[in-house]
């Protein structure tokens, strides 16, 4: 088989493998349980690993961000994904693969930034026992546009984070912690927009591969989250 027929056959195979990866993402099923209509599970798994290693999904997500994002607000929040027992023994140890033990269980924390309409811009993965403060600043530096409002909950209320927002030309809209002695200005009306990032996490966790972490490696779990973010952008 040569020429157009060969290229057509290759496109069909690649589309089938993409559909197989999406099926795994939505259901959270083991790769070995992939239905036969998608072809051999080994082929789909190898294709998924290859695309994860080359950074395909993160590159697509970045391209969508550049062309479609709404920079009126930047919202930052975090959520945790419980690590399944099959993923709890990764190569290199749990800390190296962004796993940590909280009071409840072994989990991975997803630190997410989204735009004014609630679409994902970027994320950082850490263990559940890692402080939110250290991950907030890189997200601000990478995604905050000048004159934008940075909206966060009281878990991020610190002078250092407010100063970081100011240094990057933004306006901090952060809920005040009850223990704060000095009360800076706080726009409660604008803060109501923060529900959009909470809705984003709910949409992400419709994908069972995100709601529970089945991936042993940081890179493969990050690739699954990037793919889910792409589907949210294109509204699939």
Topology of this protein?
Blueprint: H1 3-27, H2 41-53, H3 56-68, E1 73-83, E2 100-101, E3 106-114, E4 120-127, H4 133-143, E5 149-152, H5 159-167, E6 171-174, H6 188-191, H7 195-204, H8 208-211, E7 212-213, H9 218-233
Parallel strand pairs: 1-5, 1-7, 5-6
Antiparallel strand pairs: 1-3, 2-3, 3-4
Helix pairs in contact: 1-2, 3-9
Unreliable spans are: none
- Average pLDDT confidence is 92
The end-to-end span amounts to: 34 Å
Q: Return the CATH class of the largest domain.
A: Alpha Beta
For this structure, the CATH topology of the largest domain is Nucleotidyltransferase, domain 5
Give a written overview of the molecule.
It comes from Actomonas aquatica. InterPro entries: IS402-like_dom, Transposase_11. With 236 residues, the protein is α/β, with parallel strands linked by helices. The chain folds into 2 domains: 3-53; 69-233, Nucleotidyltransferase, domain 5, CATH 3.30.420. Helix content is 44%, strand content 17%. The chain is built from 9 helices and 7 strands, in the order αααββββαβαβαααβα. Strand 2 (100-101) and strand 3 form a beta hairpin. The protein is globular.
């Amino acid at each position: 088989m040569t020429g157009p027929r060969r290229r057509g056959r290759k496109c069909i195979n690649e589309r089938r493998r993409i559909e197989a990866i999406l099926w795994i993402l939505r259901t959270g099923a083991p790769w070995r349980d992939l239905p036969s209509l998608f072809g051999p599970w080994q082929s789909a798994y190898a294709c998924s690993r290859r695309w994860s290693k080359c950074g395909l999904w993160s590159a697509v997500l970045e391209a969508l961000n550049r062309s479609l994002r709404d920079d009126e607000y930047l919202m930052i929040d975090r959520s945790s994904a419980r690590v399944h027992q099959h993923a709890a023994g990764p190569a290199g140890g749990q800390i190296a693969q962004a796993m940590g033990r909280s009071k409840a269980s072994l989990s991975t924390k997803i630190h997410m930034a989204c735009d004014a309409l609630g679409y994902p811009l970027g994320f950082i993965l850490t263990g559940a026992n890692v402080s939110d403060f250290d991950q907030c600043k890189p997200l601000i530096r990478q995604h905050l546009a000048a004159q934008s409002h940075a909206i966060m909950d009281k878990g991020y209320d610190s002078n250092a984070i407010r100063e970081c927002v100011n240094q990057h030309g933004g306006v901090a809209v952060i809920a005040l912690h009850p223990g704060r002695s000095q009360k800076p200005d706080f726009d409660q009306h604008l803060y109501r927009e923060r529900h959009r990032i909470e809705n984003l996490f709910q949409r992400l966790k419709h994908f069972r591969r995100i709601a529970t972490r089945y991936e042993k490696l940081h890179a493969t779990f990050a690739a699954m989250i990037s793919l889910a973010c792409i589907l949210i952008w294109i509204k699939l």
